[in-house]
Write a structure and sequence with these properties.
The protein is α+β, with helices and mostly antiparallel strands. It has helices at residues 3-10, 65-73, 103-113, 129-140, 146-153, 157-165, 186-200, 204-218, 222-232, 234-239, and strands spanning 14-15, 22-24, 30-32, 37-38, 42-43, 49-53, 61-64, 81-85, 98-102. It has 3 domains: 3-113, Homing Intron 3 (I-Ppo) Encoded Endonuclease, Chain A (Alpha-Beta Complex); 120-165; 186-239, no CATH class.
Length: 249
């Protein structure tokens, strides 16, 4: 391939599955092909970049650049997989630097690259590791609420919930894996949108298992995932003859 052909291939825009009207290049440039609008990317403190995705009059959601590249050029991840930056640099969203992998592999990458900032190493922490373990132990005893713990340790109720569920300080013991929530984050919704067709088209037993696995991996309830599918795909659910109940599908 000539240099000119190679350069043209690198700037070729490919549709992003699950994000109607959005295209991405091999190096992570995103545009809306209908309006030919190239998006300015927002960079988080971690270095990960995203653009805002909006369909019709819906609320804008984040479309992570690394995820868009992998969806377009590799395909959907398997259950339990997430994006790995092979060189440890979140801003490097070339397809050759990205790969689907497990959370364990991603954590091992971060340790190898020296990019793990957690617990007391974070400049934003208010609690010590001793505090976090104590909070989890006290909550496990069942005689104190999130709100009461937050007041005693000088943090908000949501922070206590994240500590108990292992959303934060996940390297410490005592995480309550049973404590699920009904609120879906933008990332969970984006992944669910991509997988919805596969989930809904599966036989009842397989669909039930897929929703349970997705909910467990995302830290939310089965009901929250299934009800989201019903709400967003009500016509498809009806066409397939899927029976919904109070817990979802």
């Amino acid at each position: 391939m000539s240099e000119a052909a190679s350069a043209a291939a690198e700037i070729e825009f490919v549709p992003v599955p699950g994000f109607d009207g959005y295209e991405v290049t091999r190096d992570g440039r995103i545009r809306n092909f209908r309006g030919k609008l190239k998006f300015i990317q927002t960079e988080k403190r971690t270095g990960h970049c995203y653009v805002l995705y909006q369909r019709g009059g819906s609320k804008p959601r984040k479309l992570w650049v690394h995820r868009a590249v992998l969806l377009a050029y590799v395909g959907m991840p398997e259950l339990g997989q997430e994006c790995r930056h092979l060189d440890g640099k979140p801003k490097n969203n070339w397809i050759r630097n990205l790969k689907w992998g497990t959370g364990v592999e991603n954590s091992e990458d971060m340790v190898r690259h020296g990019t793990v900032i957690r617990g007391e190493d974070s400049c934003l922490h208010k609690l010590t590791e001793h505090d976090v373990i104590e909070i989890r132990n006290r909550y496990a005893c069942g005689d104190i609420s999130h709100k009461a713990l937050g007041e005693q340790y000088g943090v908000c109720e949501a922070t206590i919930g994240c500590i108990i569920r292992g959303v934060s300080w996940k390297h410490l013991p005592g995480i309550d894996k049973r404590n699920k929530v009904n609120i879906l984050t933008d990332d969970v919704i984006s992944e669910l949108n991509v997988m919805s067709e596969q989930i809904l088209s599966s036989p009842d037993e397989t669909r039930y298992k897929m929703i349970h696995e997705f909910a467990a991996r995302s830290g939310v309830t089965y009901s929250a995932i299934s009800k989201r599918l019903i709400t967003q795909h009500k016509h498809h659910v009806k066409e397939l003859g899927i029976v919904a109940n109070s817990d979802g599908i």
